[in-house]
Amino acid sequence: MRVGELTTFGVGGECRLVVRVTTPEELVAAVIKCEQDKIPYRLIAGGSNVVWQDAPFAGAVIKYAVAGELNKNLTITGSTIFCEAGVILADLINLAIKHNLAGLESLSGIPGTVGGAIVGNAGAYGQGISDKLIAIVMWDGKRVRVINKSAGQFKYRDSIFKHKDYLVLAATFKLERGEKKVLSKKAREIIKLREKKYPPQLKCPGSFFKNILAQDVSKAVLKKIDPTKITHGKIPAGYLLEVVGARGLKSGGVKVADYHGNLIINTGKGKYQEVKQLAQKLKGLVISKFGLRLEEEIRYLP
Ligand SMILES: Cc1cc2nc3c(=O)[nH]c(=O)nc-3n(C[C@H](O)[C@H](O)[C@H](O)COP(=O)(O)OP(=O)(O)OC[C@H]3O[C@@H](n4cnc5c(N)ncnc54)[C@H](O)[C@@H]3O)c2cc1C
Fold it and tell me: From the candidates 157, 159, 251, 274, which is the catalytic residue?
């Protein structure tokens, strides 16, 4: 199967096999089996934050993403929700809203699974998945462990899971009381707003580069930046890219959106190398102009 078909970007060549799993137990069993049989493997969940290589992968892609089913992979007790990692993030958010629970609604419209969101500490509109997280059930390669939020080392679009070969199996969130009507209105508004940047059917992996934390930037560099563009303490990568003229730049089948500097789109037959070339070019332009190093938010796999 072509792995690109398992991703929202649509880039990526063939793999030896795809193993579809729907529970944490099946996920761990699939990983153990691959290790025993010495088959290389990679995990893809919603596939909404990855750029997969074109060269054939002589291994297994383990696909873990399931629509939520209350009482099976999502349970709710008071204001606490326990959720398996393969649950679609939107299902978790909808459940929270339905139960008058606030704290996740700003993440409305982010595709993918709860596990994928935890790995990349996904967020939007000032809210992050780790804000309301209290514990994570994970597989450390040898055993299942429950760790607290601080052990997850969450930072802006970062967590320990980006740096270690751990599996996120499930998570517990502690939410606040809210009002269903208000929360669902906010969620609907956010989804509507997001559709301008991400119209349905757009082939992309979300924002390509991370924004840059203003606190990490020298005063001399900050002087070159329009202060009105800094939001939630971050310099948007899209702003930097637009200043250097990134909009509309192309590399074969991939291009920067005409309306947003930090959005790389697959126009149909985009290739992995074309994506890498374009990303290199964009990074070079931003370094030359601002002396700032952009870092990919997406993950190149395998
Ligand atoms: C249209 C669009 C809009 C987006 N908007 C936003 C946004 O506003 N904010 C934002 O933060 N992101 C955004 N993204 C990026 C993406 O949706 C998020 O990063 C999402 O949380 C990724 O989840 P996923 O399940 O798709 O992960 P995948 O892309 O499948 O995987 C990402 C990485 O996590 C690993 N992984 C996945 N699940 C697990 C697990 N259970 N255990 C261990 N490792 C795992 C994978 O191996 C891979 O390395 C957007 C993407 C798109 C396409």
Answer: 157
The reply to whether 150 belongs to the active site is no
Ligand 1 first shell, C-beta below 6 A: 8, 43-50, 64, 85, 110-113, 115-117, 119-120, 122-124, 161, 167-168, 198, 204-206, 299
Task: Please give the pLDDT value at position 153.
Answer: 98
Tell me which residue has its CA closest to atom 11 in ligand 1: 122
Q: In this structure, what token pair is assigned to residue 213? A: 């934390």
Looking at domain 207-301, which of 3.40.50.40, 3.90.78.10, 3.10.180.10, 1.10.540.10 is its CATH number? 3.90.78.10
Cα(117) to ligand 1 centroid in Å equals 5
Q: Is 266 exposed, middle or buried (0-12, 13-18, 19+ CB in 10 A)?
A: buried
Q: Which atom of ligand 1 lies nearest, measured to the CA of 120?
A: 19
Query: Residue 273 in 3-state DSSP?
Result: helix
54-109 pLDDT, tens per residue?
Answer: 999 999 999 999 987 776 789 999 999 999 999 999 999 999 999 999 999 999 99
Residue with tokens 């203003």: 214
The question of whether 247 is a catalytic residue gets the answer no
The number of residues in the chain equals 302
Q: Could you please state the CATH topology (level 3) that the domain comprising 3-64 is classified under.
A: 3.30.43
Using one digit for the tens of pLDDT, what is the confidence trace for 24-35? Answer: 999 999 999 999
The pLDDT, as a whole number, for residue 69 is 73
3-state secondary structure of 68: coil
pLDDT digits 0-9 by tens, 122-168: 999 989 999 999 999 999 999 999 999 999 999 999 999 999 999 99
Residue 231: how many CB atoms within 10 A of its CB? Answer: 13
